[in-house]
Amino acid sequence: MSVKPSAKARSGGGSQPWLHQKGMEIQEFGTVRQFPVGLAMETRMHSCQRLNQILADTQILYSLYKKCHWLMRGPTFYQLHLLLDKHAEEQLELVDKLAERVQTLGGVAVGDPRHVAEITVIKRPPDGVEEVPAMLSRLLEAHEMILVAAHDAAATADQKGDDGTNDLLVSDVIRTGELQAWFLAEHLVDTPLIHA
């Protein structure tokens, strides 16, 4: 049963929300609007394409961190459980910064999880629980893929004069990713806790 808004509601008064609204797509993914940000359309288009790829992969990395956080096992459970959650939150902050940069350039940020899954280059993990070293290695591989893309995209943004994108990629994505990769890699070093 549909409820037809009263004349008062249609004129802006009343408190009945207009439910089940439909609308046309007003900007296609992969396009940029003209914004007065001092950058050429071609530069903004290129940056949005590169940022959206890194954004999709970062959203997957965030989800991988949460999965590993929930499924952690073994004697280092507590430390890794906390560390992975901290890293996940930092990745989530990067997701927001990347999406806002795409929007700032007049683009459309990739946000639908199904769309993200279509364009990510990060391999899907098994549905079940992997051994801890495999989980950490999977996170490291994802980090490296994002870091390689971010270094390349930052260099291109610098060449094209897109200082904002370059700064975001270097100051946030790369520095955060490198630090997190270091923390993870050190958990895969096989050293004795004490010497006999």
Automatic annotation (TrEMBL):
Signal peptide annotation: none
Domain named Ferritin/DPS: residues: 49-193
Molecular-function GO terms, alphabetical: ferric iron binding; oxidoreductase activity, acting on metal ions
Taxonomy, superkingdom: Bacteria
A Pfam family recorded for this sequence: Ferritin
Similarity section: Belongs to the Dps family.
Name used for this protein in its record: DNA starvation/stationary phase protection protein
Organism: Planotetraspora mira
